[in-house]
Amino acid sequence: MDISLAPDLAYRFMLVFARVGVLVMLLPGFGQNGIPTRIRLAFALLLTLLMVPLVELPGFAAETWPVGALVPMIKEVLIGLFIGLTVRMILMATSVAGSTIANQMGLGLAQSVDPTQGIQGALFANFLGVLAVTLVFVTDMHHVVIAAIHDSYILFKPGIIPPTSDMAMMAVMSMSDAFSLGVRMAAPFLVFGLIFYVGVGVLSRLMPAIQIFFIAMPASILLGFVLLALLLSTMMAVYHEYFATLLGRFLAQ
Predict the structure, then answer these.
(1) Residue ranges of the chain with per-residue pLDDT less than 50
(2) Is the Cα torsion angle 54, 55, 58, 61 positive or negative in sign?
(3) What integer pLDDT is reported at residue 249 of this predicted model?
(4) How far is CA 119 from the centre of its chain?
(5) CA atoms within 13 A on the CB side of 10
(6) Shortest CA distance to 109 belongs to which of 186, 235, 237, 217?
(7) According to the model, what pLDDT value does residue 115 have?
(8) What is the pLDDT of residue 3?
């Protein structure tokens, strides 16, 4: 290889790494806080090495250094942030659904650290978050994630930022869709909670001498776990379908 090609090759590598590195740090599964930073960095470098010969990139021009070289990298970082945060919003659906389910069952105060986001959340939200990430890898959906990273260079040309109005609209749509999905996943538990607590209220009025609280709480938790066991597969199927639809927005075909 001619040594004169080294600056151009290094520039192309850094340009791809600017987008891929941010994406790897934000995407569900690849960018979880529980994964060591060195492993994530090594995966980002390996993925960048594979992407460089597959995508069309602008060449390096020495006369435009440093502004002409740094500005496209900053744009690539912004595009990576936009795509990564948009896809990461899907995890909010499991948080919304899990928190709603926990509140309806009376376990809203039972919290632990969420390994997928590094924050404290309801136990059911943490469970659904880990299950959702596991489902992505079990169904080979991470292959679609890598394909979406490659196709993002077709949809978002390197160095060119899409219209901010379209980016803002897509971010709002993704946020609203994630919240809507979380509510739909927890909808049976909302109906269960409404019927159960209305019945408990009626029962407490009919028999005020009975301590309904000591009967209602164990019954609510038991029935909630039974309902969760019956509906868990359907809930995750709905989540998986939405995740595939969201990734389809970043595929060229």
Answers:
(1) 1-4, 63
(2) negative
(3) 77
(4) 14
(5) 8
(6) 217
(7) 59
(8) 43
Torsion angle (degrees, nearest 10) of CA 74, 76, 78, 82: -170
163: burial class by Cβ within 10 Å (0-12, 13-18, 19+)? exposed
pLDDT of residue 86: 82
Question: Contact at 8 Å (CB) between 151 and 52?
Answer: no
Tokens 């009376």 label which residue? Answer: 106
Residue 213 phi, psi (nearest 5): -60, -40
Q: Give the chain's radius of gyration (CA, Å).
A: 23
Q: Are 141 and 247 in contact (CB under 8 A)?
A: yes
- Signed CA dihedral, 248, 181, 126, 227: sign only: negative
Angle of CA points 92, 96, 100, to nearest 5°: 165
Beta carbons within 10 angstroms of residue 144's beta carbon? 18
What would you measure as the largest C-alpha separation in the chain, in angstroms? 91
Parse the chain into domains and list their residue ranges. Answer: 3-248
pLDDT tens digit string along 58-98? 655 554 566 667 777 888 888 888 888 888 888 788 888 88
Residue 60 confidence (pLDDT): 55
Which residue, 199, 191, 190, is CA-closest to 219?
Answer: 199
> Helices (DSSP H) in the chain: which residue ranges?
6-26, 37-51, 67-88, 90-105, 123-138, 141-155, 164-185, 187-206, 212-248
